[in-house]
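Structure tokens please, single chain.
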Amino acid sequence: MVHFGNSSKMLQYEQWQCCSYLQQGNVMKDAEAKGFNPGLIVLLVVVGLVLLFLVGNYALYVYAQKNLPPRKKKPVSKKKMKREKLKQGVSAPGE
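Here you go.
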């Protein structure tokens, strides 16, 4: 502590030190009171929604693989069957 010749000046100096310390503390409180950066909030919301979408799609895919019956194949037309048999070298029945 600094001593100035008379006690009233010393008292004023101590009060000034005390007040400046409190003001520094208020600056820190004000910085904390502002909260998150708005850009950070938007980023977190967007990333959260994308993750929710991907997890939901995966859950639906797993559910569909377990519970839904497999797709029925389309019937092959007689014309296509004849063509395939001719390509393989087997004559079509009835010809």
